[in-house]
Amino acid sequence: MTQLVMYSTLARIEEQLADIELANLRRTYTITRPKFLERAIAIGAIPDFWATVIDEAPAEIDQRIQPRDVPALNCLIGIDVERFEVLDAERGEPRSIKLTFCFKTNQWFHDKKIEKKFFWRMSKNGWSGLVSEPVRIRWKERDLTDGLLDMAVNLWEKETDFKVGKRLASARDMN
Length: 175
Fold this sequence. Notes:
4-stranded antiparallel beta sheet; 5 helices; extended
C-alpha cells in the first residue's frame, strides 16, 4: 500500500512539473517572439543565408533533402516558427507550431509562402504528440514530388470528407 501511495505522489508531482514546463514555454514564447521577428529581418538582409544554412545542415536534416529539392530550396528567403495556439502568456497550447517558409519568385511554384502546421494532440488511449495535415503546393510546370504530394493531399481530403460524413450520419441517427 505504501508503494502505491508513493507512486501516486510521484505521478502527481510529475504532472505538476509538466504543467510548469508548459507555462514557462508559453511565457518564454510571448517574451521572445518580438526578438525572433527582429532577427528574421536581420537574416533577410544576408544574401543566400538560407541556402548556406541548408547546405551546412546536420545529417538529420540533410538526409531528408532530395537532390531534386535543392534548386527550389535555394529560393528560400525566410523561415518563421510560430506557436500559433498560444493566445497569450497564460493561455494556449505552446507545443503546436506553424512553420512558414517564404520564397522569392521562382520557376517551381506560385506560392510565395508555404505554411505547415503541427498540432499537439492527445488521444483517449494516452498517446500524445504532433500531428499535421498535408499542404498542397501550387506547382508551375514541374511537380518536384512527381505527384506524390497531390496524391497525399487528395487522400487526406477524401478521408476527412468521409469522417465528417460519418459523424453527420451518426448525429442524424441519434436524433
